[in-house]
Amino acid sequence: MSSRNSPELELFESISDDSMGQSPLFSYRCAGYSPIQIMGSDYNRLKDDDELNDNLIVFYMRYCLEKLRKNNEDDAKRYYLFDSFFYQKLSDVNNNFSRNKSKVYETMSRWIKVDLLKYQYIFFPICEDQHWYLVQIINPAAIIDSPLDCHIAIYDSIAPRFKHRRAVNILKNLLIDYVQDVKGETINKSVKISHSIVNTPKQLNTVDCGVYILHFIETFMENSSELEQKIIDKDTDEDQWNPDALPTKRQTILEIIKNIETEYQT
């Protein structure tokens, strides 16, 4: 952990002093992203075995990226993490402009603040019908010259088979429109890129989907050199995702938040 004066974290109030969960606990800063406030109510969601919300999903994804950055800065530079609101907005805009798809990118481009093509891995956490799943674009720049080397992977701790065609198409079209905008390269929307649902452990209850996708992204960051090609080849198995850590994952995240709170109170 950083020292009390670190710009990454700013403590607001002790968890123990905020039984109703209405006050911010700290503001978490991840390089390249806006700070995110963790509330007492977020902590309570973890403690009470409730479903994870957007705040917790975004916080822990960025926490994992910062952990990777401290161990291997060059490796961390290969990742870009969208927050959960981006896909929600993208999906809504696609519905609103169902008859005028050119308006979709025009509307969404203002929220893309980075060069997406310089990243090897782009992650989108998605919540639909009160269920979290994760979409990953691997090698996005390959869509220009070698589309089949660009891969869209789905991580879903419930679905036993592929049920995510809409999300894949929406994100593929976004990437194609982005390439045309920033590179001037025209790519036919009918171009085929590979996609798969990753073989991962499945949750045993109805509330831990968010916990599982956080575990998947953390495990991928720790083992990307081993997992990337297996995902593309559709050759992963559940044992490659450190399933033994899943029963205590919620407690692990809870303790991370508690440790931050405790350290910055002293």
From TrEMBL:
GO terms of molecular function: cysteine-type peptidase activity; ubiquitin-like protein peptidase activity
Keywords from the UniProt entry: Hydrolase, Protease, Thiol protease
Ranges in coiled-coil conformation: none
Domain Ubiquitin-like protease family profile: 36-220
GO terms (BP aspect): protein desumoylation; proteolysis
Family per record: Belongs to the peptidase C48 family.
Protein name as it appears in the record: 17528_t:CDS:1
